[in-house]
Amino acid sequence: MIIGRLLGYLCLAFALLVTGADLLRILEIRQVDLLSLAELWALVGESSLMSLEDLVVSGRFPGVWQDVILPFLAIPATIFFIVLGVLFLFSCRKRYLA
């Protein structure tokens, strides 16, 4: 339970970092363009993203990349990490019995 709360706080902290990066991008290009999960993953390690794409496309169901994974990777990273952090915190909260 402690690990889940720690992961929740870590996800929320990472959401704040990504929000700061988004705000800097907005100030720099003067246009709202939120950082997606795919862009964030490409910044961290583009080769792993490409190898995952090759693995999925060459697998048994090649349409999964286009129909499932790409729309998921188009989600703004800030929203993803906020939702993930809140889910971790909510599911691993301390429960008090009445």
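the 2nd protein, sequnce then structure:
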Amino acid sequence: MTVYVDDFRVRAQVGRGRSAVWSHLTADTVDELHAFAARLGLRRSWFQDPTVTGKPWPSKPGSRASANWHYDVTETKRKEAVRLGAVEVTSREMVPIITRRWMTLGPCTCGCPDDTHGPTGTHQIAERCGRGCLRGVPAPVNT
């Protein structure tokens, strides 16, 4: 698993009018991200999960935007993350990382045949199984 930090470096006001330059810290898994963030001294309350906090924007579970969970980090924390082993990526390179995370979901629980799934037994983007479910969400019951 890998932790990533991008080069977004956007200037923003936080706290009591303090201006800082911010980038994004994310990882292949949430658990790995939280463990790394703790090593950096980041508070868990700073974690941005769009389905829970609505940051950076409100998102529905299962949507592409819901996979954009991350911590915002100042330039000082960004440099420390790299020193601790985070992989530096451009903001542009971060997009396919988030997309890959969205595409790789947990195992399907709908009971459909394995041949309708991706290579790891998961439903992939816009792929419907034989029962009509999308990415592990049970298909609606037709009455």
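The two ends are 44 Å apart (CA to CA). The mean pLDDT is 76.
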